[in-house]
Amino acid sequence: MYLSFEECLMASYTPQDYLVYFAILLVILWFFSNIVFKRIEFDDKFLIIAVPYFMFGLALRMLADVGVVERSKLWNITPGVHVVTLVAGIIGIGIGLLIHKKYGSEYWKFPVVAGTILALITNYHLAIHINHPLRILYPFVLAVAITGVIYLASGASKRTEIFKMPGNIAIIFAHMLDGSATFIGIEYYHFVEEHLLPDILIGLAGSALVMIPLKIVVVLPILYIVEKWRVEEGADKTQEYLILKFVLFVLGFGPGLRDAILPGTLM
């Protein structure tokens, strides 16, 4: 059963919700910084672990969006879906560390295998509801074009050269995907914005196209501040800097990928 667009994406979050979600995010960041990353490194192996759990959490959320499972803040929409995904990942890493301690096998192998199984199961159930796969490409094409313009324009001065760094251009693309998918979803497929501030701004502007420049004027200054802090504090390879960049990417790419895929699930 498919939900209507109004049921799929509604401006349903309240200011109290945002306070709760921000508090949960702070707890998660503290937990990973002070517990998880005291036992493992934030490195390429961790990123390999993160990918299948990211795809698992995304598919779990979208199964609720398309009506396969009933929407619940406890486990399949915000904030519950993030908690479920992180708990699954932490359990996988914990078992991987135990296997490493007992048998010497690299810790990351078990969580990758376990996460991949979860991702395959949930994404299979999601894939059978994708009826128009080509629609998923439109936001990606627009996001690539906008990111390309920003990349070329960033060579105009030494201050803006930081936006051409691989990590930063990936973050910019992630948020351009989010803005592009929101614009296309609302303007062409009649989705409704679910977040309060964007919903207000879209109403004032009269078009969801405003989400793209809004993303630009928010993301670029944040990246500039982060890179300035990196230089001033010598934080180039610090755990905090890497985690912050990772979080910035996920906050854009997760919603962007979800909003890009949803039009493809329409009948």
Describe the protein's architecture and organization:
With 267 residues, the protein is an all-alpha fold. The protein is built from ten helices and no strands. It has helices at 5-8, 15-34, 44-65, 80-103, 109-127, 137-153, 166-189, 196-205, 211-233, 239-261. The protein is globular.
Give the low-confidence spans.
Answer: 1-11
Mean pLDDT: 91
Total domains, how many? 2
Write down the Rg: 19 Å
Percentage of residues in strands: under 5%
Q: Cα distance, first to last residue? A: 11 Å
Determine the structural class based on helices, strands and strand pairing. mainly alpha
The percentage helix is 55-70%
How would you sum up the global shape?
Answer: globular
What's the total helix number?
A: 10
The major β-sheet equals: none
**Count of extended strands:** 0
Element pattern in H and E? HHHHHHHHHH
Summarize the structure.
This protein is mainly alpha-helical and about 270 residues long. The chain contains ten helices and no strands.
